[in-house]
Amino acid sequence: MLSPRATRAVGNLDVVDEYDAQAGRAVPAEPELTAEQSASDTQDVLAAVQGLAGLMADVDELEDVLADIARFAMTAVPGADGVGVTVVRLSAGPAVQVLGWAVTDPFVREIDRLQYEVCGEGPCLTAMHTGRPLTSGSLGSDSRWPRFGGRVARRNVHSALSLPLMVRGSVVGALNVYAREQDAFTAHAVHLGERFAEPAAVSVHNVQVLHAARTQASQLEAALKTRAVIDQAIGIVRSRAGGSADEAFDRLRQISQTENVKLAVVAERLVDEAVRRAHARHSRG
């Protein structure tokens, strides 16, 4: 069940903030910001967004890009002691499949490991499932994640802000912001985080697309190399025993099944043996 939306007083009105706060816990009071502080917060977000724009698309490692995004998020969200950025697998269906994540601090990696690999619950997973930002001001008493919250509180981390990263209505990942003090993230922090999350989602999506394209290209390259080796092995079998290409292929497949090894391994072994024999004959000559 989703916790109630957070409300805050503005003049004589109660304004509903579009995020899910911890049920049964008072929403943190908004800070009294001076004009200079407000301008500084805005400049921090703009600087973080400009950093996103400068990310290189040809970075070799997925985590390198995610680590840069996490570092920029630390600048954008006031009150953060650590940030993690999570990217999920494209076209994973209704179940979220974490493709990778990067963090600004080792304690965040340990928390997210608990969330993804141990407990199977937590603010990031909930935010990605609902598509809504959420906050928790006391993780140890938050009923949404009974297995996760207590473990994190014992590590002296009490507040969380999770922001789903959305592109065209689809979740591509999440920002996970943690703080050691309780009630660290106000609606102001959520608002600044959302301003950063929109362009960050585009960057994460680009990382997804790039990673998927590279994976597909790598798989295709490997398949082509495997096909070439098998074709060479078929040629070797035909040169020794005669027969058709289909008969030679069946012979390779029989060896594969008998020895319980992959066909590509059988083919590569046969080609390597032929190359060694050719070199030996050349040396004797």
Quick structural overview:
The protein is of the alpha+beta class and 285 residues long. The protein has helices at 35-53, 62-76, 106-119, 123-130, 146-153, 187-241, 245-259, 263-284; strands at residues 5-10, 13-20, 82-88, 98-103, 134-136, 159-167, 170-179. The strands form two sheets. It has a five-stranded antiparallel beta sheet.
CATH fold-level assignment of the largest domain: Beta-Lactamase
Number of helices: 8
**What is the share of helical residues?**
40-55%
Q: How many structural domains does the protein architecture include?
A: 2
> How many E strands?
7
Based on CA atoms alone, the radius of gyration comes out at 27 Å
- Assign the CATH architecture of the largest domain: 2-Layer Sandwich
Nearest-integer average pLDDT? 80
Strand content: 15-25%
Fourth CATH level, the homologous superfamily of the largest domain: GAF domain
- Coarse morphology: elongated
**SSE string:** EEHHEEHHEHEEHHH
The biggest beta sheet is recorded as:
5 strands, antiparallel
Category from helices, strands and their pairing: alpha+beta
**How are strands sequenced across the largest beta sheet?**
4-3-7-6-5
Poorly predicted sequence stretches spanning 5 or more consecutive residues: 1-16
Which CATH C-level class of the largest domain is it? Answer: Alpha Beta
End-to-end Cα distance, whole Å, is 81 Å
